[in-house]
Design brief:
Blueprint lengths: L3 H9 L14 H7 L6 E2 L5 E2 L2 H7 L18 E2 L3 E2 L6 E12 L2 H12 L9 H5 L6 E6 L10 H11 L3 E4 L1 E2 L2 H5 L5 E3 L1 E2 L7 E6 L3 E3 L2 E3 L4 E5 L2 E5 L4 H23 L5 H4 L6 H29 L13
Parallel strand pairs: 5-6, 6-7, 7-9, 8-10
Antiparallel strand pairs: 1-2, 3-15, 4-9, 5-11, 5-14, 12-13, 14-15
Helix pairs in contact: 8-10
Length: 313
């Protein structure tokens, strides 16, 4: 069942237009529902997290983007199949909503689409042709839509975006897709092509597993699963991860010396001399500006600083 939130949002969408969508968000609506986005936007209103920040996500782990600790517990999906576990997936969500085919609705969709001068049927390839570099194709196939891509369309998505895909549905030609080296997440693989379904929305809120995905969310996937980060949380994760990486580097460095028990060092040193050494190491690695920001955060959090993200022991 879909959440009440998605139902309410769906009711806010404007009627079918020349894009042949049953559900659509205007740029103004996208701005409204992503009002906390601090970055630029695409012309359609979708948040555009900068490439420079996306690049930093490539050095991060799933534990460092765990949105539940910031009040967003429904962003992670861990039960999809992983196409290439050694490949990380990072990009901006470009969403597509499938629904089971219904002739009276799909008939209107196709008529509206034909009225634009189009000669091919309206479907998910229309969305694929809208993809841009850095997008991740995120499709809600309600867990059962087969063959959202085969090896040819998957290759097209990969070359057009430079990223990958997340499907709550199926793919086909798994042998071929797996050979590209692209990252991807999917519910199942099976020979049939997409059938008995219709595309009713592009760049609207969708559900992937138990996660709610908004257009423009940062998509982060690794071998543990995939998560969808609202743009306004991105900086907090990136800043905390930078400190976490320094913390982990220093911790392992001290363990390499073979002089300390784990409790002397992890999760934080308690000896004044070691605390001082750690702070100096942090300042060296972060630089003056980064270290001053760390101290500011430390003060604002009552002396606790930006705690390293939760990690597996």
């Amino acid at each position: 069942m879909r959440s009440i939130t998605l139902t309410v949002l769906a009711l806010a969408f404007v009627p079918l237009n020349v894009n042949a969508q049953v559900f659509k968000m205007t740029p103004e609506q996208l701005v409204k529902y992503t009002a906390e986005n601090p970055y630029d936007r695409f012309p359609d209103g979708r948040p555009k997290v900068p490439d420079s920040i996306l690049e930093k996500f490539k050095a991060m782990s799933m534990e460092e983007v765990e949105a539940g600790r910031l009040g967003y517990p429904n962003q992670y999906v861990g039960d999809l199949k992983v196409l290439n576990p050694v490949k990380k997936l990072v990009g901006r969500a470009f969403t597509v909503q499938f629904m089971p085919a219904r002739p009276d609705i799909s008939g209107v969709i196709q008529a509206e689409w034909k009225a634009t001068g189009a000669t091919l049927r309206y479907g998910h390839q229309i969305a694929m042709d809208m993809l841009q570099l850095g997008d991740v194709l995120v499709a809600d196939g309600y867990g059962t839509v087969p063959g959202i891509v085969g090896d040819n369309l998957a290759y097209y998505v990969w070359k057009r975006t430079g990223t990958g895909f997340v499907f709550d549905g199926g793919i086909r030609d798994l042998e071929g897709i797996g050979s590209f080296g692209m990252p991807g997440y999917f519910r199942f693989s099976a020979p049939p092509a997409t059938n008995n379904t219709m595309v009713v929305g592009i760049n609207i809120p969708v559900r992937i597993g138990n996660a709610t995905v908004m257009p423009g969310d940062v998509v982060f996937g690794d071998r543990e699963g995939v998560t969808f980060v609202p743009p306004h949380l991105v900086k907090a994760f990136v800043d905390a991860a930078e400190i976490t990486h320094v913390h982990d580097e220093w911790t392992k460095k001290k363990f390499d010396e073979g002089k300390y028990k784990s409790t002397d060092i992890y999760s934080a040193p308690t000896d004044p001399a070691l605390i001082k050494e750690y702070e100096q190491y942090l300042k060296q690695k972060l630089g003056e500006q980064g270290y001053q920001e760390y101290l500011r955060q430390k003060t604002s959090r009552g002396g606790r600083g930006q705690a390293p993200a939760q990690k597996k022991e």
